[in-house]
TrEMBL record:
Belongs to the peptidase S8 family. Residues 1-31 form the signal peptide. It comes from the Bacteria. One of its GO terms (biological process) is proteolysis. Residues 93-325 form the Peptidase S8/S53 domain. The chain crosses the membrane at residues 374-395. Keywords: Hydrolase, Membrane, Protease, Serine protease, Signal, Transmembrane, Transmembrane helix. This is Peptidase S8/S53 domain-containing protein. It comes from Streptomyces luteogriseus.
Amino acid sequence: MRRPARAAGRLAAGAGLAAALLLPTAAPALAAAPARVPAADGAKGQKLPGMPSAFDPDATEVTCTPASREKAKKQDWSRQRLDLDRLHRHGTGAGVTVALIGTGVAPGAAGLDGRVTAQGEGGDDCVGHGTFLAGLIAGSGGDTPRLAGVAPGAEILGLRGTDRRGRATSALVAAALRQATAAGAEVIAVAVALPDRDAELTDAVAAARRAGAVVVAAATPDLTRAGTDEIPSHAYWPAAEAGVLSVADMLPSGARPDGSLPTTGIDLAAPGAGVVSGGPRGDGHYLGGGASVAAAYAAGAAAVVRAAHPGDRPDAVVRRLTATAYPADIPQLDPYAAVTAVLDDPGTPAGAERAAAPVTVRDTSAADHVTGRALLFVLTGTAGVLAVLWAAFVLPRARARRWRPAGANRTAGD
């Protein structure tokens, strides 16, 4: 009878030891957060025409960008990176008007569902770039819902800040800013960047901010030629104006594209290469990139934040976008976090402290205390089980040896 009892005791002891080893590690594992998997370039392999940001200013004739005959077959990397499918379960920017200052926006463009109004020449988008950006801000995706913009419930006010070829001037951008302010736009996206500061433009930006608009601007002009390595760092306007959210383009790796124009004072980076959107003619798709694309994504995020947090002032919206950005050399836009995070003080204005502004993590001290007590209980209970099992295994053997150390009987019998 002893051998079965001993075997059972050894089996129970082994089970108890396994439980003691596994239980302390199992409890903390329940709280582990899932890892974020880097998104792949979803546009790779898709043969789509490129969307220009401007035409050659020296060309003798202007031919508008033709309708694309190609359609994207899958969601591109930029929408995966921004987690738009999950964002749209929390907000779509409904009720917010985004004024887009660029080459104009075609009111009847596919995927914008009649949510575009245009002033003056703003409805004539020969280049097509403005309509492309409008799709990133507020497009529904049409028959491809996964190609929707950041804020598919927002309204677009199309304004021309360029001539018909896409060449911007300070006077045109300033005039468009004043039109956006007069129309009561809650978010103003400026898709162009000018090399020189202009007093009229500065005044127009200040007036827009006083009226309560969040002003988002491309940190640099979109590249029109290669070989920018020798260009020194330079500030561009209106992105460099005080209170304007300056946005640069990034690759799937998070780095800026090769040959990007160097500049300072960038607040955010957002996807700006191999991005898919529609145009002013037809229902086909194009590929685009540049800081203007990144600024459009940030403007869409601002619209969703404004709709989700209607009481936040413009500086608080900007701070929310920067404080919740994914940490990197240039913080990377995270619209989902901007909408859902709880900031330490939503009323604190943005400014010099933007980059260091912390996100308040939910107070889990009570839960941690309960978890600690539960873990202590498990460990104490496990120790008790091991003690009982040890006694059940060791004491009978000691009693059989008449409480003498192991090997004593063997010595006596030699």
